[in-house]
Amino acid sequence: MMRRISLGILVPLALLLAGCHVVGPEHFVVFFAPKSSALDSQAKDVLATVATKAKQRPGVSVKVAGFSAPVGGSIADNQKLAAQRAQVVVDTLVADGVDAKQIRHSAIGGVDFSMDSVESRRVEITLGEN
């Protein structure tokens, strides 16, 4: 019996083996403590990686979306916290040399019920996606 292998996996693998760089959207996530917009050391490491990659691809779009848990506080409070989280990520990326013109940011506060409260306390960063 022959197995079928998806070309979607083989093509990027072949390009990587040939030394080619596959360009496409890259996704990163940083997490926050409850009711906090402070970055921990792990989040700072992730953002340093994002900044390095963004600077290697001048002009690439950097999308930053802040989230907060849909529990505790009002919708307005959760929206404000999500915005603070997104802003601290933007400020850190700019301080690390990313052009502020490349960055678009938004806040989605307390409305993401698809994840538990730990996963909702996050900022998602996407490089290279419009």
List keywords for this structure.
single chain; 130 residues; alpha+beta; 60s Ribosomal Protein L30, Chain: A; four-stranded mixed beta sheet; 4 helices; 40% helix
Secondary structure blueprint with pairings:
Blueprint: H1 7-17, E1 26-31, H2 41-56, E2 62-68, H3 75-95, E3 103-109, H4 117-120, E4 122-127
Notes on the structure:
Helix content is 40%, strand content 20%. It is α+β, with helices and mostly antiparallel strands and 130 residues long. It has one domain: OmpA-like domain (60s Ribosomal Protein L30, Chain: A, 2-Layer Sandwich). Strands 1-4-2-3 form a four-stranded mixed sheet. The longest helix is centred in the middle third of the chain and has 21 residues, at 75-95.
Residue share in helices? 40-55%
Number of helices: 4
Strand content: 15-25%
- The CATH topology label is 60s Ribosomal Protein L30, Chain: A
Going by CATH, the architecture would be 2-Layer Sandwich
The termini sit apart by: 43 Å
Offer a quick outline of the entry.
The chain has 130 residues and is of the alpha+beta class. Helix content is 40%, strand content 20%.
